[in-house]
Write the structure tokens for this entry.
Amino acid sequence: MSKIVVIGCGIVGAAIAYELSLIPGLDITVIDKNTPAHGATGAALGVLMGAISHKKKGRAWRFRSNSLKRYQTLIPELEAQTGLKIPVNQQGILKLLFAGENLEKWQELQKFRAVEGWTLEIGDRAFITQHCPKILHEDIIGAVYSPQDRQINPVELTKALVAGARANGVKFMFGVEVQDFVTQTRLCLGEQDDDFAPSRQVAKKSAKQNIVSCEYLVTSIGQISVEELIISAGLGSTPLTQSLQQEIPIRPVLGQAIKLQLDRALGNADFQPVITGNDIHLVPLGNNQYWLGATVEFPTETEASIANQDLLAELMAGAIAFCPELKSATILETWSGKRPRPEGRAAPIIEKLSGYSNVLLATAHYRNGVLLAPATALEVVQMLTLTPRS
């Protein structure tokens, strides 16, 4: 294995390219029909809800934990290599708890996280009044504070990943569209269970099966040879897999967000965590500016995704309900983006494409692309280096 092609340069594709670039002897090319972070990454808020999530086991928690640990080294590593400054809020995440919240569930999570070295603090109304005096909703009974979770500017991080990977020899081809694939099918001997084996020890016998490999990409600038192909194109992954006769359905879920300007910082200027409540995120940006998001808007039956202005108004009203000072904010910008959500299965999709020996999917992260990008990249590296070619 030496020649690897990654399709897609959102934060996941860029992270994969960077981690692969740290391995000597690989020839890596990244292709994207747009510019870096053009799709879902460009609209994301970059809130890393890892330790504060309720995931405790399996891949869901392993990926979160691995990502948070990798981020601790990745950010300084990229900044030192590229000279770029990556905006990171290291003051954690404060989750508001409302009347009716199951406090025992949070206390159990607090103990569980502590065993693995993660800190969660559970505070009452007095805790909120002390640390975030602008939070005034009468139904708020307390908060959970996660000091080790982060918020990262996803666009700037993607640019730094690209710069770091490029410095390590990765070739990036932007404005290039993948139009088709040239594949090769060959027979391979495998093993098959013998249903008629006379004993409980299931016998194995040789069986012929078709193995398909991708040999070339047909692009808008010509053919590109490939030994290992990684599809990390978000919503663009579905038409690519259709071209490979293995459709992976991924649907768009639209999200809207708002950028706000205030005359002064909310609450204590020296304590500006991400505040989240009722699935609304208030993200400090510095200079008395904040991101507010995000809506969750599923496509219509015709799969059209149209931003609903009423939902944007509800988002603003919901934030004002727990932080009345936002009434005086000036709206600087509104935007929307489409998140790739897999249909009929859990996100993300990280696996070999069925029937192919050298095509790997790393896509459909839905609302957790920024959070899970480092862990996804590490998983892809492991799959490529530990899984032999058929």
Summary: The chain is about 30% helix and 35% strand. The radius of gyration is 23 Å. The chain has two domains: 1-87+150-249+343-390, 93-147+250-342.
